[in-house]
């Protein structure tokens, strides 16, 4: 099984790239990371992220006893 995993690496060679970090990229402070995580936590638990992704309808419809559909706000 290990031979199957090793087979592509026998035929391909990893390129020797000299990548540099962009000069404009700076490491965010610990407080910025904490604030981002805390904000995203409240957005997820508040349901805002769910509403953005799923887009549930704010107005639905129901059928009354005569068979007519009536709008219902949810």
From TrEMBL:
Specific component of the STT3A-containing form of the oligosaccharyl transferase (OST) complex that catalyzes the initial transfer of a defined glycan (Glc(3)Man(9)GlcNAc(2) in eukaryotes) from the lipid carrier dolichol-pyrophosphate to an asparagine residue within an Asn-X-Ser/Thr consensus motif in nascent polypeptide chains, the first step in protein N-glycosylation. N-glycosylation occurs cotranslationally and the complex associates with the Sec61 complex at the channel-forming translocon complex that mediates protein translocation across the endoplasmic reticulum (ER). It is found in: Membrane. PANTHER family: OLIGOSACCHARYLTRANSFERASE COMPLEX SUBUNIT OSTC (PTHR13160:SF4). Belongs to the OSTC family. The chain crosses the membrane at residues 30-50. It comes from Eufriesea mexicana. It is a multi-pass membrane protein. Keywords: Membrane, Transferase, Transmembrane, Transmembrane helix. This is Oligosaccharyltransferase complex subunit. It comes from the Eukaryota. The keyword Membrane applies. One of its GO terms (cellular component) is oligosaccharyltransferase complex. One of its GO terms (molecular function) is transferase activity. Component of the oligosaccharyltransferase (OST) complex. The keyword Transmembrane helix applies.
